[in-house]
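Q: Sequence in, structure out?
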Amino acid sequence: MKNTMEEWRVALFVLLAALVPRSLQDKDSKEWWYTNSNDLQKLSNNEPSLDTNNTSSNVTVQLGGTAFLHCRVKNLGERTISWVRRRDWHILTSGMFTYTNDERFQVLHAEGSDDWTLQIKYVQKRDNGTYECQVATGGGVVSQFVTLHIVVPEAFILGSGEHHVDLGSIISLVCIIDKSPQPPQYVFWYHNERMINYDTARGGVSVDTEPGAKTQSRLTIRGAQDTDSGNYTCSASNTEPASIFVFVSEGDKMAAISRRKSSSGSGIDVMLWFVVLPLLVIASR
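A: Exactly. Output:
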């Protein structure tokens, strides 16, 4: 291996000698060889290199947020940094120029800085994927890959798909916002199509929200009325909403509904018994 490297070095020197004017070759050849060898070493040391120790290869951003994909390059010199979207090989930026009609994309770079940041505003689900920061060098192209993960927070209301309350009692619904890197700035509650967070006309309505890793929002409606029946939806910014149907009725009606469900189940059990019994008799013969 050592001999091979020496052969390559000699071949390179021969090539350089062929390119140098004869007047220079007539000088002390030994001095010329060492001078150019040192120049080549300096040139090699000045090649662009990617600083991957201070950049992240995975970036997670909530739907609708702003993504910052960092790329730090040392010894860039006169060369140009380009950002490429890998899913369609589209060149998004080259230097400070943007090569896409999507105005959400922009490169951020401060003069004298090694950082060339691709900024994506109002990220969408389709922005999910891998992006490549690349720069051409004497030995080819060096690249850094950054994978962007778009997360969509989800809301869910505790309980089943429907909620039964007595007339005059309290409606209490709890909504949980999950998979949100940052707590939502607001949580809105809707009764059918009407937002009721600040429903002063109805009165007795309050919303208490506790932000956190799993934001919790509680809707309380006092003195439930017939008109409070309907669909209730919990919604936050850039979040999949959740809904539940609330039935408000008098206590005796609730009992009747319960009895109907119970009797319906009993009737099915009796019918099944009349079907199974003859089969058992036949099988015993």
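The chain is about 25% helix and 35% strand.
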